[in-house]
Design a protein that fits this description.
homodimer; alpha+beta; Phosphoribosyl-aminoimidazole Synthetase, Chain A, domain 2; 2 domains; 10 helices; PurM-like_N_sf (chains A, B); ThiL-like (chains A, B); ATP-binding (chains A, B); Thiamine-monophosphate kinase (chains A, B); EC 2.7.4.16 (chains A, B)
Chain lengths: ~325, ~325
């Protein structure tokens, strides 16, 4: 579709329960790509052997992430639109965590033949909406058949200034956090016990709201390290501590614990701070700043960087898991 | 790993039959990324939230493709190294088909917990080798657990001149082909009947040899359209005919039919040209050139472009399937 054109309704000619097998590969791709409006930087969007993009920067940021049904999402817990939002958010957040901005994404889908077209198009709509929030276009993709639903996303973007790595934290820096943290983990805990409230926590799991402005702002302000919290706050701070060769201490009392988190923890007999310390699905950002820097908008100091190694909470190693791993 | 360093043997500390679950996510990723030497254009390779690349061109080509076990490859027909080569080749070929050159790839893997680490590392080795053939680096990736093995690749590159699309063919142009065509389809036919020879055809299926120099050469020579043959020669020419608004005629006698193809067809009682006309796994290239152009090295004229629509063989519609679809 040429840049700027409005997508037509792609599902108009199919019954509501048509599956991918009913519709066929090429028509599914056509219906899906019709959802993806192309930004001005896109010379050739979906449909040729490759997409062709213009960049005003000679630096390219690229990251890729997979999501697997029943591992990263459950179709009875999330709508297709939620899954689309989450798949895009997870990748957009990776560029946010370099201080960058995304301009383009590709969307690869391996899907069972019996998947309804309507479900896939809803996923596409959610994906496109989340990309639009970050100002990025869906420029290409792939669709293939599989037994299990897998969503494979790659995101491209740029930094206006030098990207902020995990390896630059220095003793004396301030540790800061941007975005909601622990909400999605609490929402997931609620859903996995068969409940649907507190609604704010469940919605935070279904549709994270990564702080897309916070990454570039941190870079502009001179952040020394930056990471997105996708494995769990303590686990990801562990990556920063290891890459930077420093010790990081989180101050418990500096962490925001909203009423919804308290309610979930009370219902389950746990500590609400555990969600904050080990949750990953919010795609918040953690950064370190030199002590003299005024923290930019959206950032809150939550700890300190010192000499040494490892991550502590109020000076003590945290008991229990720091996050989760895939194998 | 810094650019230019030689990767250490990453599997040294694990028993030969260790599975991904035995080794754990982070050590698997470490072992895998140790295989990927980084080119000079890579500022930050695998290990941070995103890779950071330098490009000397303001145009970016990007394409993505998925491969699913038992659909795109079978582990009893192909070695892990073959699968790695094929996954890279399929994506590198997409940029070749724009007249471009790849510089960077990402490798996403969804894999069962019981997959042997050794198998995955062999895949990584094959992938890296194929990327090196095209002068490209593996700059990032993702690893997650799934029931089914899925390999999701994204390739980035540039064109020195304007990319060649599917939509530029004009009546009067010459149709030309570069690379082996039909060999892999014959090899697949052999394997699916439980045989292992002719070896050249089977090897062509296991490890395609896309003509990576042919795409940029065609662009330099002024090709009006360019496509890689991944769905089948007639099917992909159909995409060109539709995108360009032209008719394409393939001349049967111009198509190379090597002895191995004849042998496979004879053993199966079919026409060897069917492999050439409908095979897709060789990742050959088809292009159209203005009639006055001397075809560049590696290209052979196989037909003509006329006014009208659709694809014919010696003036007649081909009977039977033009290629294959995923749903």
């Amino acid at each position: 579709m040429p840049p700027g054109e409005t997508p037509a309704d792609p599902s108009r000619s199919w019954p509501a329960d048509a599956t991918l097998a009913d519709v066929g590969e090429f028509e599914v791709i056509e219906a899906l790509t019709a959802l993806f409006a192309q930004g001005e930087h896109v010379e050739v969007g979906p449909g040729d052997d490759a997409a062709v993009l213009w960049s005003d920067d000679d630096q390219i940021l690229v990251s890729t992430d997979l999501m697997v049904q029943d591992r990263h999402f459950r179709r009875d817990w999330c709508s297709a639109e939620d899954v689309g939002h989450r798949a895009a958010a997870q990748n957009l957040s990776d560029l946010n965590a370099m201080g960058g901005r995304a301009h383009s994404l590709t969307l690869g889908i391996a899907a069972p033949a019996h998947l309804p077209l309507a479900w896939l198009l809803e996923l596409g709509r959610g994906f496109a909406e989340e990309c639009a929030l970050a100002g990025a276009s869906v420029v290409g993709g792939d669709l293939t058949r599989a037994e299990e639903l897998v969503v494979a996303v790659t995101v491209l973007g740029t930094c206006r200034i030098d990207p902020v790595l995990r390896s630059g934290a220095e003793p004396g820096d301030v540790l800061a956090l941007a975005g909601r943290q622990g909400w999605a983990a609490a929402g997931l805990a609620v859903l996995s016990r068969g409940f649907r409230s507190p609604r704010a926590m469940v919605e935070a799991y279904r549709r994270p709201e990564p702080p897309y402005a916070a990454g570039p702002r941190a870079a502009d302000a001179g952040a020394t390290s930056l990471v997105d919290v996708s494995d769990g706050l303590l686990a990801d701070l562990g990556h920063v501590a290891a890459a930077s060769g420093v010790a990081i201490d989180v101050r418990r009392e500096a962490l925001a614990v909203p009423e919804g988190l308290r309610a979930v923890a009370a219902a389950m007999g746990g500590d609400p701070l555990d969600f904050v310390l080990t949750g990953g699905d919010d795609h918040s950002l953690a950064a370190t700043f030199p002590a003299h820097v005024d923290l930019p908008e959206g950032w809150t100091a939550i700890g300190t960087v010192g000499a040494g190694s490892g991550v502590t909470v109020d000076g003590t190693p945290h008991e229990g898991a720091a996050g989760w791993t895939h194998f």
